[in-house]
Amino acid sequence: MTPDQKLLNAAQTGHLAGVLVSLDEGANIEAKDDLQRTPLACAVEEGHLEVVEALIQRKADVNAKTYADMTALHLAARDGHTAIVKRLLEASPPSERVLNDVLTVASMSRKSKPEIVTLLQDFRVKSVMPSEVDGDAAQRLIVGAHDGAIDIVREALKAGADVNARDGRGMEAISWAALRGHAEVISELVKGGAKVNGLNGSGWPPLGQACGQGQLAAVKALLANGADVNLQFDDGKTALACALHQGFPEVTKALLAAGAKVNADELCGAVTEGSFPERSWTALGAACDVHAADGSAPLCVAAKVGNQKAVVAMLDGGASIDFVDQGKRSALMFAAFQGQGVVVAELLLRKANVNLKSSADFTALDYALKGAEPQIATLLLASGGQMGDIPSVLSFVADHGSVELAKIVLVFKPDLNALDAQGVAPLHTRCSRATSRSRGCSSRMGRSLTSRRRTAQRRSSSLLGSPRCSQRWEHELPQRTSMPTRPGTS
Q: Is 7 found in the same domain as 79?
């Protein structure tokens, strides 16, 4: 192992003595591993503060870029290492562009911590120079709003400060007050003429700043002072979207109570991607009972993709368990067809209507059978499930050839000669297939045409006329090579 490799390994494992020995042996302090991480980046990612301190003392490049163009500060902020973030800021204050980028990373990372975002914001506001705002009074106003110092804010307003002046980061006083959660300061600024629905240099209004940080008091103050709850930001987001993505349930409820509009398309996308924490789905509750542009519903989509946590959270929040999409298909139907057994069990425990019918006249049991899910079909049958369109399902089962599925259908004692939607008896179709296979086999064996016909007739007669028809059927059904159209794909 080379000295550089020893250094990288020691930094990653937090072995301070190994780091120092490797450096003394001539290892390159800026060596990089396969992920383009320097020893400093390795130590930062693992949270080894002592190693970070030692490398900084040895003049490691704090601003060296690793994978995805991230610096050590990006990694520390993303992974929630507060003490390391402080040390890196002290060692090498970042540029405005880098600082904004790090703030974005910290705000979006679930491993980051609120105090890290606050720390970065504090660093940013303290770096504002007097020349970047309109006079000393304006700067005092911005600093006072950031710190929640109501007396300083009032004094600056009396001194004639421009209430809508921006600092070097494009932030007005009301934006800082919203971001930091200073409700009293917000009300004072609005009285002084602050634009409650104005967009800052990043294209976000004060309400968006408050929602993104879960500042409930600030959200309520802004709404009370006329903030537009459905105002769209420059990047297309809304205040509700910010609260949902960050997982602030109380803020979400406040926005819904103020009339925030739910974007059903966004909800269906989020449940598929798993981009909302469960607490956000619980906060939405009955607001999940909506239809997207394609007719789908969030609860149905969650059941379809097997997102049990989202299903449970929505139902805990008050979503309707039997809410259907525009094809009148329920969450139970989707889960049954897709083989999501855990979701099916959850819905049955919560008393989902097992015998609802879709617009195609199918029940959840029908969908389980058409989805070739015998275990789920058995569970639904035990829960009182009935079949809706027996001839159609019987046709599929006859075509599919599953003995397990056939046994479930035969519980209902169906008419085996009933016609399906195409006007064909399932077993007649099966016999036709048996005849075709018999002909092919006879041809290969050099049988005469008469012999082939007799064989086909004999097989057909035995299938349709035998008192043990169902038993013969179970053994003779061919395997299906393609599945029918699934719910939501038509």
A: yes
